[in-house]
Amino acid sequence: MKIVIYLCLFMFLSDADDKIVNSDDLEGPNVCKRVVTENITVIVTEMVPYQETKIEWCASVPPRCRKTVIKLKAVNKTEVLEKTRTIQECCNEYEIKQGTNLCILKRANQDEVPLNKLCNAGWTGEFCHEPCSDGLWGVNCKNICKCQNKSKCRKYDGRCLCEFGFTGDFCEQKCPNPFYGNDCTETCNCPNVSNFQCHHVYGCRCTDGFRGLSCEELDEQK
């Protein structure tokens, strides 16, 4: 009988998981994922049985008897485990642009880019490695955002990302009472007095002309 205790397995597997490439490491089009298999060496402790003979006092003549017992001893050894992980890399014929996390055509292929090449939605530039400027979106960044109240649109589909306190397709509406905040998901729980109001951005606040924790003080500056 033997018992195997994996002393370092968890540590090694945790380290391996930390090496998985985060999806934020590479951005933009032309980024591919690939599953790779790696061998990880771990140290294990195996409890190996062995016999030990000793002399004990006993009721015989002479009163000394030989006794054999089975014990276990720890033996360290290494094992190789197979671990898979997902990595990100530039797709075929693309390479990382120096100093960035964007994939562009390899220099040997840049002369082959057709002049009428269409970039993926949200990207522009000679080699489709530049994101659309603020206020523009879509294929080759030809569309203009229609978002209001300082809100921005997603560069690949034009969907408005509303600032706190606004909602609607174009962020044209304030959060309806009693809601406020990001995507109007927060609910005001203001005291039931007339000096409080639910602000569409900040939540419960004093009405104009009042201040203080209970909104009972007159604001002379108003």
TrEMBL record:
Task: Please give the InterPro entries that the UniProt record associates with this protein.
Answer: EGF (IPR000742), EMI_domain (IPR011489), MEGF10/SREC1/2-like (IPR042635)
Q: Domain of life of the organism in this record?
A: Eukaryota
The record's keywords, sorted A to Z, are:
Disulfide bond, EGF-like domain, Repeat, Signal
Q: What stretches pass through the bilayer?
A: none
Instruction: Domain (EMI): give its ranges.
Output: 28-105
* Signal sequence bounds: 1-16
State whether keyword Ion transport applies. Answer: no
Lineage of the species this protein comes from: Eukaryota, Metazoa, Ecdysozoa, Arthropoda, Hexapoda
This protein is called what? EMI domain-containing protein
Alphabetical list of Gene3D superfamilies matching this protein: Tie2 ligand-binding domain superfamily
Annotated GO MF terms: scavenger receptor activity
